[in-house]
């Protein structure tokens, strides 16, 4: 009887016994790309003397809003949401950056208008995200046109 215990002990020591399955929880997969969307825009002060800016975003060569409206109006203290700009978005690939160019237009022929400044989503932030994880980057866009203006633009990065 002792020989069976001895053989079993030797088998374990020499590795002849079936190894125990060891699993570690896998590290969260890192995002190869990120979707970047407008999260929020707040107007602190507007660029035009009439107290109202007619705004668009240029993202990836496209102007937003683009289908239901040609611009979204904001006054000092107002809040804009993604849907009001028809959900502008773009994709970060690798370490590239994506810019959301805030543009003031003059109706009725709005066109591209004048750039007030840019909010930037950085590839370096995307590279640190796990798939499905999110981060928000905020830029303050400010300057002087007809009057001094300032906007807070927040961009949502989602790892893919």
From TrEMBL:
Alphabetized UniProt keyword annotations: Signal
Record carries keyword Signal: yes
Signal peptide start and end residues: 1-23
The protein's name: Allene oxide cyclase barrel-like domain-containing protein
């Amino acid at each position: 009887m002792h020989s069976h215990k001895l053989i079993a002990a030797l088998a374990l020591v020499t590795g002849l016994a079936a190894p125990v399955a060891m699993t570690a929880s896998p590290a969260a997969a890192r995002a190869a790309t990120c979707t970047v969307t407008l999260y929020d825009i707040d107007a602190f002060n507007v660029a035009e003397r009439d107290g109202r800016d007619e705004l668009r975003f240029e993202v990836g060569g496209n102007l937003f809003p683009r289908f239901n409206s040609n611009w979204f109006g904001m006054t000092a203290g107002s809040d804009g949401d993604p849907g009001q700009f028809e959900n502008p978005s773009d994709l970060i690939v690798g370490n590239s950056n994506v810019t959301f160019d805030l543009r003031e237009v003059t109706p009725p022929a709005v066109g591209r208008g004048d750039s007030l400044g840019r909010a930037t989503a950085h590839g370096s932030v995307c590279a640190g995200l796990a798939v499905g994880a999110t981060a928000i980057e905020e830029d303050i866009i400010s300057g002087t046109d007809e009057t001094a203006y300032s906007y807070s633009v927040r961009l949502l990065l989602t790892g893919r």
